[in-house]
Amino acid sequence: MKRWVLITGCSSGIGRALVAACREAGWGVVATARQMSSLEDLPPGDDLRVLAMDVTDEASIESARLACLDIPLKALINNAGYGQMGPLELLRPDELRAQFETNVIGLHAVTRAFLPLIRHHAARGEGRIVCIASVLGRLSIPMCGAYNASKHAVVAYAESLRLEIGRDIPVILVEPGAIQTEFRSTLMKAWGDLPTRVLGTPYHHALETYRSQRERFAEEHGMPANACAARILKAMSAACPPRRVIVGFDSRGAQLLHRVIPAGLFEWALRRLYGV
Q1: Domain range holding 203?
Q2: Helix 93-100 to helix 145-165 angle, to the nearest 10 degrees?
Q3: Lowest mean pLDDT among 43-52, 112-121, 207-216, 227-236
Q4: Which DSSP helix (H) or strand (E) runs through 179?
Q5: Residue 83 contacts by C-beta under 8 Å, 6 or more apart in sequence?
Q6: Tens-place pLDDT, residues 160-189
Q7: Catalytic pick from 82, 147, 203, 210?
Q8: Residue 245 contacts residue 172 (beta carbons within 8 Å)
Q9: Is 216's pLDDT higher than 80?
Q10: What is the CATH number of the domain that holds 107?
């Protein structure tokens, strides 16, 4: 293979769809996930390398980097992440810290580790770094403060990185809306004892409203993960890649409304929608 891409968070969802899309487009793919067992069902081939990599573990990242020294790595897709939901008033500092460790610090650690390899193998303008954020990196909704904050940080990170290295290696920021993935089931696993903590508080009804609203919307209107992957691949393959890729009508529509509707009215609508 003349070009390889490393993708984080390939156990399911967008990451898994990106593995198939990139291979079909002629890329060699380094598919990574925390647990090797979650990658065992990927079709084997000379164009695929699977690695266990935890983005919050420096030793794990270094081990993966060493395993990629023999391939012409020319792109990185930072996809790994999860959502820590719940009212900020009841969220423990360690839960907020863990959210940033994966979604922001982990993204930086992986980028920092693999950027020198991309510089080594890619001609100027040929390499690619993709950072997958969210529509919630541009606006915020209730019951989602930790995730909102982490994705706002990813947006700022990608835009700053582009200013620093963009002339040599284009940086693409992806802002998806609702995607039909297992994200929401992972979200509920991350709750821990949060449902118990909200009992008897004004947030009890709001948290359940949030869960049901987001799950129903994703089922009815969410974009399939393979369609999202196709959009990302198109941007990554462009001779002059876009700075931002807004994926989904809900992402585009919400960002437009956030810009044109007065802030007070926008906040009133969100409180009403989520029952806060």
Answers
A1: 4-274
A2: 30
A3: 207-216
A4: strand 179-180
A5: 99, 144, 147, 183, 186, 187, 190
A6: 999 999 999 999 999 999 888 665 556 666
A7: 147
A8: yes
A9: no
A10: 3.40.50.720
Rounded CA-CA distance 256/63 in Å is: 43
Given a contact cutoff of 8 angstroms between Cβ atoms, the answer to whether 16 and 87 are in contact is: no
Residue 41 exposure: Cα atoms within 13 Å on the Cβ side: 5
* Residue 147: active-site member: yes
What is the per-residue pLDDT for 204? 84
- Give the total number of structural domains in the chain: 1
SS (H, E, C) 17-70: HHHHHHHHCCCEEEEEECCHHHHCCCCCCCCEEEEECCCCCHHHHHHHHHCCCC
State if pTM tops 0.90.
yes
Question: pLDDT class for 274, splitting at 50, 70, 90?
Answer: confident
pLDDT tens digits, 86-102: 899 999 999 999 999 99
Q: Given this model, what pLDDT does residue 170 score? A: 98
Buried b (16+ CB within 10 A) or exposed e, 17-30: bbbbbbbeeebbbb
Rounded Cα–Cα distance for residues 82 and 103 (Å): 7
- Contact of 219 with 178, CB cutoff 8 Å: no
Q: What is the DSSP string of 230-258?
A: HHHHHHHHSSS--SEEEESHHHHHHHHHH
